[in-house]
């Protein structure tokens, strides 16, 4: 039921490979109650790893997505090398039959856009807070454009 296939690229480029069973258990079977959001490439679920109790975010690539195995491999190969305090860390991945999943650190405060553009009074930020956020974003962009390949 949970059979997984390993390919040669995984030994060279890949970070930690999670078992499908662990991610299935972590996300309570990819229940809607664990759904964090939906994007162009699929759905993102909150999970808790059964072995370490670490909170994770699992991006489940949509079967309808045009992101095939080549793009999946490219994302893994590039994301695994990124190390910056303002970028979400890729912890690993899972591939089982047609299932493609990426595992990231869970960000308990949610998406940055909800703080910058949200209408909720509780998420309103002062201009000094917004300025600190944009400095962090600029730092991450500088890293991506100039430093990460070194």
Automatic annotation (TrEMBL):
<protein>
    <recommendedName>
        <fullName>non-specific serine/threonine protein kinase</fullName>
        <ecNumber>2.7.11.1</ecNumber>
    </recommendedName>
</protein>
<dbReference type="GO" id="GO:0030246">
    <property type="term" value="F:carbohydrate binding"/>
</dbReference>
<keyword id="KW-0812">Transmembrane</keyword>
<dbReference type="GO" id="GO:0004674">
    <property type="term" value="F:protein serine/threonine kinase activity"/>
</dbReference>
<dbReference type="InterPro" id="IPR020635">
    <property type="entry name" value="Tyr_kinase_cat_dom"/>
</dbReference>
<keyword id="KW-0067">ATP-binding</keyword>
<keyword id="KW-0675">Receptor</keyword>
<keyword id="KW-0808">Transferase</keyword>
<keyword id="KW-0325">Glycoprotein</keyword>
<comment type="similarity">
    <text>In the C-terminal section; belongs to the protein kinase superfamily. Ser/Thr protein kinase family.</text>
</comment>
<keyword id="KW-0472">Membrane</keyword>
<keyword id="KW-0547">Nucleotide-binding</keyword>
<keyword id="KW-1133">Transmembrane helix</keyword>
<keyword id="KW-0430">Lectin</keyword>
<dbReference type="InterPro" id="IPR050528">
    <property type="entry name" value="L-type_Lectin-RKs"/>
</dbReference>
<dbReference type="InterPro" id="IPR001245">
    <property type="entry name" value="Ser-Thr/Tyr_kinase_cat_dom"/>
</dbReference>
<keyword id="KW-0418">Kinase</keyword>
<feature type="binding site">
    <location>
        <position position="59"/>
    </location>
    <ligand>
        <name>ATP</name>
    </ligand>
</feature>
<comment type="similarity">
    <text>In the N-terminal section; belongs to the leguminous lectin family.</text>
</comment>
<feature type="domain" description="Protein kinase">
    <location>
        <begin position="30"/>
        <end position="150"/>
    </location>
</feature>
<dbReference type="GO" id="GO:0051707">
    <property type="term" value="P:response to other organism"/>
</dbReference>
<dbReference type="InterPro" id="IPR000719">
    <property type="entry name" value="Prot_kinase_dom"/>
</dbReference>
<dbReference type="InterPro" id="IPR017441">
    <property type="entry name" value="Protein_kinase_ATP_BS"/>
</dbReference>
<dbReference type="GO" id="GO:0016020">
    <property type="term" value="C:membrane"/>
</dbReference>
<keyword id="KW-0723">Serine/threonine-protein kinase</keyword>
<dbReference type="GO" id="GO:0005524">
    <property type="term" value="F:ATP binding"/>
</dbReference>
<dbReference type="GO" id="GO:0004713">
    <property type="term" value="F:protein tyrosine kinase activity"/>
</dbReference>
<keyword id="KW-0732">Signal</keyword>
<dbReference type="Pfam" id="PF07714">
    <property type="entry name" value="PK_Tyr_Ser-Thr"/>
</dbReference>
<dbReference type="InterPro" id="IPR011009">
    <property type="entry name" value="Kinase-like_dom_sf"/>
</dbReference>
């Amino acid at each position: 039921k949970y059979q997984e296939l390993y390919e040669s690229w995984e030994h060279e480029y890949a970070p930690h490979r999670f078992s499908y069973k662990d991610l299935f258990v972590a996300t309570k079977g990819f229940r809607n109650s664990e759904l964090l959001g939906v994007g162009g490439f699929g759905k993102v679920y909150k999970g808790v790893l059964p072995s370490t109790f670490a909170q994770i975010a699992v991006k489940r690539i949509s079967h309808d997505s045009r992101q095939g195995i080549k793009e999946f491999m490219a994302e893994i190969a590039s994301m695994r090398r990124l190390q910056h305090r303002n970028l979400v860390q890729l912890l690993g991945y899972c591939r089982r039959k047609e299932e493609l999943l990426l595992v990231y650190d869970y960000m308990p405060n949610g998406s940055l856009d909800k703080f910058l553009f949200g209408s909720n009074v509780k998420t309103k930020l002062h201009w000094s807070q917004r300025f600190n956020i944009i400095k962090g974003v600029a730092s991450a962009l500088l890293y991506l454009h100039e430093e990460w390949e070194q």
